[in-house]
Amino acid sequence: GQLTDNRRNLQSLRKPMTLFKSLKKRVSCGDTCSSSSQCPSSCPYCTSNTSICM
After folding, report:
1. Is 7 among the domain residues?
2. Are 38 and 46 in contact (CB under 8 A)?
3. Cβ density class 29-46: b for 16+ within 10 Å, e for less
4. Is residue 41 part of a domain?
5. 19: alpha, beta or left? (left if phi > 0; alpha if psi -120 to 50)
6. Which residues neighbour 39 within 8 Å (Cβ) at sequence distance 6 or greater?
7. Which domain holds residue 39?
8. Distance CA 30, CA 54 (A)
9. Backbone angles phi, psi at 17, to 5 degrees
10. pLDDT in tens, the chain (54 residues)
11. Does 38 reside within a domain?
12. Minimal CA–CA distance to 25: which of 38, 35, 43?
């Protein structure tokens, strides 16, 4: 039935989710980043041209 299908889908989603979280680790100022959300509050912007936290 549908209930077991949903549960199976949730389980297969769990692993990529934790993988994604580890990718979003915060980086330090001057470190390379892929988005501003990765940067700490002391340098909250990920520059588009150099891709480092500033």
Report:
1. no
2. yes
3. eeeebeeeebbeeebeeb
4. yes
5. alpha
6. 26, 27, 29, 33, 45, 46, 53, 54
7. 26-53
8. 6
9. -65, -45
10. 566 666 665 555 555 555 555 455 678 999 999 999 999 999 999 999 999 999
11. yes
12. 38
Give CA separation, 50 vs 2, 7, 19, in Å.
48, 43, 25
Classify residue 15: in a domain, yes or no. Answer: no
Q: Which amino acid is at 17?
A: M
Q: Report DSSP state, residue 24.
A: T
Q: Structure pTM?
A: 0.50
Retrieve residue 26's tokens.
Answer: 């915060």
The number of folded domains in the chain is 1
Q: Six-digit token pair at 51?
A: 């891709």
